[in-house]
Amino acid sequence: MAAQVVEEIIKKARGTRWPSPPLSQAEELRKRGEKEVARFSIASDGVPVRPSGPGSERLRNGQYFSMTTYYVGTSPSMNRLNNYPGYLNATWNGNLSEFGWEHGLGASIGYRLSSTLETGLIFERISARISGTLDLSGGNYVSSHSLNMFGLYLTARTPELLTAVRLAALARIFYCLGNYKEAENGFVTSGNKGAIGWSIAAGPEIDLACNLSMSLLGGYLQVTLEGFGVSFFMPGDPPVYLEFSGFTIQAGFSFRF
What we know:
Blueprint: H1 2-14, H2 23-39, E1 65-76, H3 79-92, E2 102-112, E3 117-134, E4 139-157, E5 165-184, E6 187-209, E7 212-222, E8 224-231, E9 239-243, E10 246-256
């Protein structure tokens, strides 16, 4: 008898149509489920991975180091240096041009303190050269200089503003070693000089892959070198004075590992 009663209850329960939850509650349950799935999603290697997307943290497991290579261009003032070719042109009937934009390359290796902060070591080299003739002295003239910069940097990044796009701001301090060289008809004058310099830059950074990004930064470099143990060949024999200070552009790629 009892078995028949239980069987009858089960039949009635199976035939009962249970009410569906309100649409608002169902939508809320769906959203909560999606958040939990994304939060605890598992990568193919079994390691939990945080989601990517606008505002998410992009510092993935194991990607604490970075290597960056980039092009750098600068427009230094070089006012005193450019007075020198002008003097030579006027005095020796020359056709020398002035120094303008200077170009170079840079590289850095860094450690990511967090998804927004990075610090490390950096190296940059920029150089420039002009040449021409001085008719009254009957010779070919060449003037060149370079600047090697060894330093430390600190980068701060915003969270993602758009998918895979953020802003980065960079501050650097360098020990700068400059070289100056002047040659005419085999006669060479050269010297080296060191000084402390700094630079700042900012601009967009775009993720191309999970461990590769590119950046385009604009900034300012402050470095002035004077002396070099040589002088300009003009009245008063003023010491060589190179003003590398000026606006810069930088474009490069970073690899995280």
